[in-house]
Design a protein that fits this description.
The complex is a heterodimer of chains A (155) and B (200). With 155 residues, chain A is an alpha+beta fold. In chain A, 59% of the residues lie in helices and 13% in strands. In chain A, strand 1 and strand 2 form a beta hairpin. Chain B has two domains: 99 residues, Rna Polymerase Sigma Factor, Chain: A (Orthogonal Bundle), CATH 1.10.1740; 101 residues, Orthogonal Bundle (Arc Repressor Mutant, subunit A). Chain B is 70% helix and 0% strand. The termini of chain B are far apart. Classes of the chains: A alpha+beta (155), B mainly alpha (200).
Chain lengths: 155, 200
């Protein structure tokens, strides 16, 4: 008897086969003494288990057992739910985005003025990166094109 | 308007509805009624008294948190039993990951050992009282690995189908069939051994 047939005999006894498969397997078992012996053993084990499990009683008093559950229930109810990471980032973005935008615009206006006063300032194609952790801005100034570009990114 | 109920005599359904409205006293009554059953299921799976108490208590807390999701498709105690089973499976999975599997266990996993076992032809529980049968089954179950014991419990005592067991245990139906086959065959041998060792 193949391994596959052995498992099918079990599935047959457990009612896990579709009717056509069950009928075919029934014919196999009828003609194979080995399969019949295996089916008989599996049936005996199944019916032995049908008597059920040994009853077990919780070895703690009702009050003591409940007191721990009740404490844990109250703790979980009073604990505020932790905000997910994405919502924290979104909240930071709400606060910092306008500030970063304002800083970027200020830089846009101030840089040509500073350039005029200081003479030197940035060279052609100079870049400045923002050190902010969650919001980053990136400024690019091109003297040749007389243009300053500010990118604002929320990470 | 709040409805006053006699907690000790109210049926489970009434207590569940009251608990869903936040009545902790109703939930306490449900715990008192079904705590032995939940503890027994946890114990049968983890085979450790302290762990079984912890897991059953954790299940009650989870049950309280999710109580609003309970729609009454099954009985309350069946719903709670599923929660404790899932917690036991999680615990056993973590333990399994932290322990190196023995060669014998690995062989059992792939289903190699049971092919060599001769068929047991005697009825190992014949002539025993119900209580004696349960004692022997418990002793034999204790000698099975957690994977085989669990699959037997879920199939024979919880009445789950192969597909449901596979989903809960996170493995294929083929693995469940193989484990169940091994567990039954091994149990037949263990019960026969127990019978021989007790027969004068």
């Amino acid at each position: 008897m193949s391994d596959d047939t052995s498992l099918k005999v079990q599935a047959w006894l457990d009612g896990e086969l579709v009717p056509s498969e069950a009928a075919a397997l029934g014919r196999v078992v009828a003609g194979d003494p080995q399969a019949q012996a295996l089916a008989a053993e599996l049936r005996r084990t199944k019916s032995a288990l049908a008597v059920g499990e040994l009853p077990r009683v919780l070895p703690e008093s009702r009050e003591f057992y409940w007191s721990r559950i009740e404490r844990a229930m109250r703790e979980t109810e009073s604990r505020p739910e932790a905000a997910p990471e994405s919502s924290r980032v979104a909240s930071l973005f709400r606060w910092f985005a306008p500030a970063a935008l304002a800083a970027g615009l200020a830089a846009l206006v101030a840089l040509p003025l500073l350039q005029k006063r200081g003479g030197g300032g940035w060279g052609n194609g100079a870049e400045i990166e923002s050190p902010l952790e969650d919001i980053s801005s990136f400024t690019f100034r091109s003297e040749a094109d007389r243009m300053t570009v500010v990118w604002i990114n929320a990470r | 308007m709040s409805v006053s109920i006699d907690h000790s005599s109210a049926p489970d359904e009434v207590l569940v509805r009251a608990a869903q409205r936040g009545d902790m006293r109703a939930f306490e009554e449900l715990v008192a009624r079904h705590r032995d059953k939940l503890y027994a299921r946890a114990f049968s799976m983890v085979r450790n008294e302290d762990e079984a108490i912890d897991l059953s208590q954790e299940a009650w807390v989870k049950g309280w948190q999710r109580l609003k999701q309970f729609q009454g498709e099954s009985s309350f105690v069946t719903w709670m039993t599923r929660i404790v089973i899932n917690l036991c499976l999680d615990r056993l999975r973590k333990q399994k990951r932290s322990h190196a599997e023995s060669i014998e266990q690995l062989d059992e996993e792939v289903g190699g050992v049971e092919r060599q076992m001769p068929v047991v032809t005697i009825d190992p529980t014949e002539g025993l009282t119900r209580e004696e049968q349960r004692q022997r089954i418990d002793q034999a179950m204790n000698q099975l690995s957690y994977a085989h014991r669990t699959v037997l419990i879920l199939h024979e005592f919880e009445g789950l189908e192969y597909k449901e067991i596979a989903q809960r245990m996170g493995c294929s139906i083929g693995t469940i069939m193989s484990r169940l086959f091994y567990a039954r065959r091994r149990l037949a041998v263990l019960l026969a051994d127990l019978r021989e060792s007790r027969t004068p």
